[in-house]
Write a structure and sequence with these properties.
Elements lengths: L7 E2 L5 E2 L4 H19 L9 H14 L3 E2 L11 E5 L2 E3 L14 E10 L2 E10 L5 H18 L8 H14 L3 E2 L5 E3 L6 E5 L16 E4 L2 E3 L5 E3 L6 E3 L5 E3 L2 E5 L4 E3 L18
Antiparallel strand pairs: 1-2, 3-6, 4-6, 5-14, 6-7, 8-12, 9-10, 11-16, 12-15, 13-14, 16-17
Helix pairs in contact: 1-2, 3-4
Bound molecules: 2-amino-4-trifluoromethylsulfanyl-butyric acid and cobalt (II) ion (2 copies).
Length: 275
């Protein structure tokens, strides 16, 4: 069974965690981010998404942790791998071989000592074309526009509005059909964290809230559809889509990011700085 959950629910039904709970989230977030760091060198043309998922699952097990997604609502894999026009929840498959120039999101959620760490980032097989590189930059920066709003007294509406303003100013669209979520000792909890919205719309942010921000941004229109496998979400217009996700906690004066990349490889174009 679930057991007792920590902290208490505020008037909006959002769980408020204690200062001590941050350590558990940092440990879980650090492992998820470290796994995404270590998969980077395996993302090359010719590899299948099932091969990547198998490596990821082994890393989770070797760390003495658990995958949050294996067995979640019937999902069978330790990651979601979403290529090009796939918005999210791409299912790893031996039939999906990466082609040079593909961009992909890899999303991993682990459970460490009962705490959930959920993060995703973009990768490229080989080199991206200019449109793809631009979309990844905009999506990454949109996430950080949202994170910059996270402090007590600001609202969830401010997070969404900041992301939407940034994405639309760059002639991209924000996916409405999927959102971020509260997490902690559960995978998905209140509130839904929208990546669009109105400045000042509630609920208000409070210290001790833990949640993800995970904007999906499209080069074309925002509409999505779910394929017959009941998981894979794609853009209806087949335009390119990108996503980045961090798990964060609200502090007295801002926030802490639980899923920072220990290797500094969160941004997909970290390679650009190497040569
Ligand atoms: N990690 C995803 C999220 O960001 C959820 C994946 S659920 C799965 O919330 F079952 F598709 F893996
Ligand atoms: Co998430
Ligand atoms: Co995720």
């Amino acid at each position: 069974m679930e057991g007792n959950l920590p902290g208490h629910l505020n008037k909006d039904g959002i769980r408020i965690h204690s200062k001590d709970d941050f350590a558990g989230m940092h440990a879980a977030g650090r492992l998820a981010a470290n796994i995404l760091d270590r998969i980077t060198d395996h993302v090359v043309p010719g590899v299948t998404t099932l091969e990547l998922d198998t490596l990821i699952h082994q890393m989770v097990i070797d760390a003495g942790a658990k995958s949050a997604t294996v067995g979640y609502k019937g999902y069978q894999h330790a990651s979601c791998i979403s290529i090009n026009h796939v918005v999210c929840h791409g299912i790893p498959s031996e039939k999906k071989k990466l082609n040079a120039g593909d961009i992909l999101n890899i999303d991993v959620t682990v459970i460490v000592d009962g705490w959930f760490g959920d993060t995703s980032r973009m990768y490229v097989a080989g080199q991206p074309n200019r449109k793809a590189a631009r979309l990844m930059d905009i999506t990454h920066d949109a996430l950080f526009q949202g994170i910059a709003q996270v402090k007590p007294g600001n609202t969830f509406g401010d997070i969404g509005a900041a992301i939407q303003r940034y994405a639309e100013a760059h002639r991209c669209s924000v996916v409405r059909d999927f959102c971020g979520h509260g997490l902690g000792r559960v995978f998905h909890a209140a509130p839904n964290v929208l990546h669009y919205g109105r400045w000042g719309s509630k609920p208000v942010l409070e210290p001790g809230m833990f949640f993800t921000i995970e904007p999906m941004i499209n080069l074309g229109r925002p509409e999505t559809k779910v394929l017959d496998d009941d998981w894979t979400a794609v853009t209806r217009d087949r335009s390119l889509s990108a996503q980045f996700e961090h798990s964060i906690g609200v502090t007295e004066d801002g926030c802490e990011i639980f899923t920072l990349s220990p290797a500094g490889r969160f941004h997909p174009t970290w390679k650009r700085d190497e040569t």
